[in-house]
Amino acid sequence: MKRLIVILAALTAILMIPVAVSAQGYDKQPADAVIVPLGVAGTDYAALEPGVRGGTVYVGTISNPKKWNAVTAHETSTTQYTNIMQPGLVNLNPITAGYDPELAKSWEVSDENKVITFKLRQGLKWSDGTPFTADDVVFSFMDLYLNEDVETDTRDVLQLPDGNFPVVEKVDDYTVKVVCSVAFRPILNSMTANILPKHKLEQFVHKLHPEVAADAFNQVWGLDTNPKDLVGMGAFMVESYTPDLNVVMKRNPYYYHYDPKGTQLPYLDKYVVLTVASQDVLLLKYQNGEIDCFAPRPQDIPILKPEEKQKNLTVLVNKEMPGFGTTWVVLNWDTQDTKYRELFRNLKFRQALAHLFDKDTMIRNLFNGLAVPQWSPVSYLSPYYAGREKYAGPVTEKNAVVFPYDLEKAAALLDEIGLKDTNGDGYRDFADGTPVEIELNTNAGNTTREGACLIIADDAKKVNLKVTTAFIDFNVLVNRLMGQEDYKAIYLGLTGGTEPHSGANVYMSTGGLHAWHYSAATGDITEVEKRVDELTNLAAAEFDLDKVFEYYKEYQIILSQDLGFLYTINQAFVYSYYNRIGNAQVASPNATPSGNNGLTMDFIFRKS
Amino acid sequence: MLTFIVRRTLYMLPLLLVVSLISFMLIEIMPGDYLTKMKTNPFVTQQTIAEMAKRYGLDQPPLVRYWYWFKGILTRGDFGTSFETRRPVFYTLFEGGRLMWTFIVSLTTMFVTWAIAIPLGIYSATHKYKLSDHTLTFFGFLGLSFPAFFFALVLLWLLVGVFHVGQHGLGIGGLFDNRFIDAPWSFAKLGNFLWHIWPAWLVIGTIGMAGLLRYMRASLLDTLSLQYIQTARAKGLSERIVIYKHAVRNAINPLVSLLGLSLPNLVSGSLIAATILNLPTVERAFFSSLTAQDDYVIMGALLFFSLFLLIGNLVADILLAWVDPRIRYN
Predict the structure, then answer these.
(1) β-strands A270-275, A56-61 pairing
(2) How many CA atoms, within 13 angstroms, populate the side-chain half-sphere of residue B290?
(3) Are A224 and B91 within 8 A, CB to CB?
(4) Residues of A with CB below 8 A from B27's CB?
(5) First vs last Cα of chain B: how many Å apart?
(6) Would B299 be classed as within a structural domain?
């Protein structure tokens, strides 16, 4: 066996061809190139170092891409490639999560904040050598995202509060104007939308070419497309795709990012994403050295940590960096049983329940300690997180609304609202003697959520409150959460982002995911909900970020005190990479242009 | 014989129709649909989801959708489009040579399984109730009762954690090491393929091994107790000739029909092993369509698997008639 391995290894070594460095697309660095100040003191990138060109980095992912079309894509299995291929006008800074100019060089807000004028970078080229102009930007927004024929969920984030959509106009070849009917600051966040090449795609747009079918664009850039026909401006372009095995991305010779030494980025020649159907096998492949960087699960950390020295890898655990999104328990204020409806609408009951959440135990038992308690509807990483002192300031948690784990307090609150054991079965009953029994649902198979539900039910028992758990199919759970089926309590999570307005669909009284209280949309609105609606609108119309922060601070505090969602815990960001990969230490949920799970593809490199 | 084959082939059509109807109804009974997951995305409005439901026809009642789907097959030979990839269902199922790899993996596994199980079955029968017979049976059943996913995972763990194959530049799972996936075929690539395929042979083969071994053993024991074997021995033929020329040839007949019956397993028998061992097979595409509730891809896959089941049965019957002249279908 061993001899066979040696022979095979020798054979393969002979056949390995040295990787040729591909030519650069530009004659000289374009004047408007982005300089990433790697290692330059005083910048966000001071802790990083300029790298060396060449080589390949391997990562792994669970599912195949579904298409190569950034506009019609719905899932990260696709956007993890399209976001690398096609950047937007603005981009998130991978270190600070603030907005950086990307294809735009700068922007200016005018006309009572209703018009944003973007100056585009000049001299940039698409990966096929075609020059990039304002036409591409106008095409992407007006003929793709805002075209009713096109199936895209990006249209939703472009919609203004008055129901209209912005109009994107060309001023000259390198200037575009985004005109809104009302001032709407979150529109800037939507300017991260991928910009697509007009010269390649306009022929498939029914609006511009009536001879093609209305649905034509939705079929374009499917998996059967020759990768040579995919054009973008991003760091890497897809070179080949083998279903269930890998996606190979090749550096774009026309990429416009450079390091301070004048080396064109990205450093890598190739970026290869292996498709590995099982998380366990992904871990084994990482341990086997087949992939260079890996986003482990909490249960993988105790396996990887002892191997750090021996295998020369780093396990990055950053509790200061929980991922985006929220995890919570929601009580159904509109449940059919009026007794429960009244109970769930009683703030004191919700407070009692919040005091029953033993978040420390959840973190220790379910996440191996790799999680943080969560209290706010806004993600920790957002510059608007109310745990910060000011906009993008350091996190001090001075304003945190915390309901500490306190069984006595919970019991006292339950006593106070008249829930007492009247029939002597050991559990509390309503004042009229009917027993209280709350079924807590979550999706079957998600072991951490199931565990959290069991911990909550167990603690409820300690104060004689009967909470049962039922783990059900995810789709049934969603139907319940959407109010299509009755339920009492659900444990679930939602995705989030840096821009708090992305939660409007959840927290505004009219939101389609206002899960605890859908009847608020039809007039049954509380004072808190009214104020949240007001604050959301104020924050959306305000462009002074310090003022926006103040609005969102109040928004977070009152929402958390009101306990529409009872927040639980959030997993900390964990990442692991072999030390042969440079600049991987800044892996984070903010990473852009994002490789798999947090790698910034621009500036990682393979150390020689 | 020919009329038999024609008749059986014609029977398949109504059967497939019933299969498709039942499958469609089962898919409908599954809670939610392709768009349900999107509903919990705060960035997507209900209006967009409703528009998409309309675009995909998911707002129509199931029977209407079934009828459109069925009409598409009859009139255009169109088995539907995947919601996820917006490509025809069979493209989605078979893209990237999945069909070919499915057959290569299955056929080689079957070959290896038979090549090992039949001799072991013969050995087991000729050493009835001896320690070696019991040992073989024990290990056969151990293999049968070992869950494939666990076996596959343990095997990969052994390769990585104990044998440290990575230090020798070897990968685990999949069909090739990273550097070979996109390389043109060469002897080195073939060697690398063999390195990646043997765990599949072992894991998938082990499942079928015990059954086949016991079949062969039982069948041979039956034959060995027949009178003509006694006669052969009485004639003074050597034991080798008695067993291999007279007994095994007859005993193997019933197993030939097993060969036909294992045809459906070729395309649908190794989902779990394929998932853990990361093999690009049709089952994996089927599985991911199930998790996404990509209805028409599920339908396409079920029809495809059913077709193979029916063909497998037919082939089994034909093979049986072919090897055993006593059997005639009328």
Answers:
(1) parallel
(2) 11
(3) yes
(4) none
(5) 8
(6) no
Domain contains B265: yes
Q: Which residues of A touch B276 (CB under 8 A)?
A: 277-278, 280-281
- Secondary structure E strands in A297-391: 313-322, 326-331, 371-373
**At B119, which CATH number?**
1.10.3720
Q: Assign A320 to helix, strand or coil.
A: strand
**Option in B37, B86, B156 nearest A222 (CB):** B86
Residue B265 CA from chain centroid, whole number: 3
Is the ipTM above a cut-off of 0.95?
no
Q: For residues B166 and A401, what is the distance between their CA atoms, to the nearest angstrom?
A: 49
Question: A30-292+580-606: which CATH topology?
Answer: D-Maltodextrin-Binding Protein; domain 2 (3.40.190)
| A292, A59 Cβ separation under 8 angstroms | yes
Fold that domain A326-571 belongs to in CATH? Dipeptide-binding Protein; domain 3 (3.10.105)
Q: How far apart are CA A473 and CA A471, in angstroms?
A: 7
Is residue B270 within 8 Å of residue B108, measured between CB atoms? no
Picking from A246, A281, A502, the nearest residue to B156 by CB comes out as A281
Residues near A133 by beta carbon (within 8 Å), at least 6 away in sequence: A120, A173, A174
Number of other CB atoms surrounding residue A485 within 10 Å: 12
Q: Give CA–CA dist A538/A532, Å, rounded.
A: 10
Number of domains in chain B: 1
Name the A residues in 215-254 with CB < 8 Å from any B CB. 218-219, 222-224, 240-246, 248
Helices (H), chain B: 2-29, 46-56, 62-76, 89-94, 98-126, 131-145, 148-157, 178-181, 187-224, 227-234, 239-241, 248-251, 253-261, 263-268, 271-276, 282-292, 295-323
- pLDDT tens for chain B, 330 residues long, are 788 888 888 988 999 999 999 999 999 888 888 998 888 888 888 888 888 899 888 999 989 999 999 999 989 889 999 999 999 999 999 988 899 999 899 889 989 999 999 999 999 999 989 999 999 888 888 888 888 888 999 999 999 999 999 988 899 989 999 889 888 999 999 999 999 999 999 988 888 888 889 889 999 999 999 999 999 999 988 988 998 888 988 888 888 878 877 777 777 667 888 889 999 999 999 999 998 899 999 999 999 999 988 888 888 888 878 777 777 665
Closest among A145, A128, A144, A137 to A173, alpha carbons compared? A137
**DSSP secondary structure letters along B50-63:** HHHHHHHTTTS-HH
Tokens of A244: 């269930």
Residue A464: CA count within 13 A, CB half-sphere: 19
Q: Is residue B254 domain-resident?
A: yes
Give the span between the Cα atoms of A194 and A190, in whole angstroms. Answer: 10
CA dist B100 and B281 (Å) reads 8
C-alpha B281: how far from its chain's center?
10
Residue type, B210: A
**Domain residue limits at B155:** 100-280
| Chain A touched by B180 (CB under 8 Å) | yes
Residues of chain A neighbouring B167 (CB-CB closer than 8 A): 289
Domain locations in chain A? 30-292+580-606, 326-571
